[in-house]
Amino acid sequence: MKNRRLSPEQVARYERDGFVHPIPVLSPDEVRQFRGELEAWEHQRGAPIDFPEKSKSYLLFDWADQLVHHPNILDAVEDLIGPDILVYHSTLFLKEAHTGAFVRWHQDSASFYLEPHRHVTAWVALSDASEQSGCMRALPGSHRWGNIPHDDQPG
């Protein structure tokens, strides 16, 4: 079967490193739409999204459901694990400018309790994700190290 979104080289990089990037999946208009709907909800609420709404938000918001079921995202995931795809979890991480917001180093597999660890995390940015703005970082090959003890306590 021919890959739908990723090249054979990208699939090999995923197998080797445990991640592959960048994979453009949203148009600029789609990014504006999804971010705009999130920001509109935050404006109406008077505060940034937080727990519990930021966890499994696709169950609460139509725009988040559209995002986790976006064909370009699902095509990339299918290229990695095949067509039997289940949205198991989602979390919105907001790291607004001039705040101390951050996400600690962690392994998703330690939180999901799935065996085998045949899951994919699709990290989708709805804003600039440059190094200066605190982009996502990963350790190449760490998916082969097994679960490493860590905590989720704020630092």
- Let me know the largest β-sheet: none
Low-confidence stretches: none
Q: What is the helix/strand order?
A: HHHHH
Helix content: 25-40%
Q: SS-based structural class? A: mainly alpha
Shape: globular
> Please, what is the average pLDDT?
86
Tally the helices.
Answer: 5
In whole angstroms, how far apart are the ends?
A: 46 Å
**Range of strand content:** under 5%
Strands, total number: 0
Rg result: 16 Å
Structure description:
Helix content is 33%, strand content 0%. With 155 residues, it is mostly helical. The chain is globular. The termini are far apart. The mean pLDDT is 86.
Give the structure's gist in a few sentences.
The model has no long low-confidence stretch (mean pLDDT 86). Helix content is 33%, strand content 0%.
What attributes characterize this protein structure?
155 residues, mainly alpha, 5 helices, globular
In terms of topology, how is this protein built?
Elements: H1 8-17, H2 28-45, H3 62-68, H4 71-81, H5 108-112
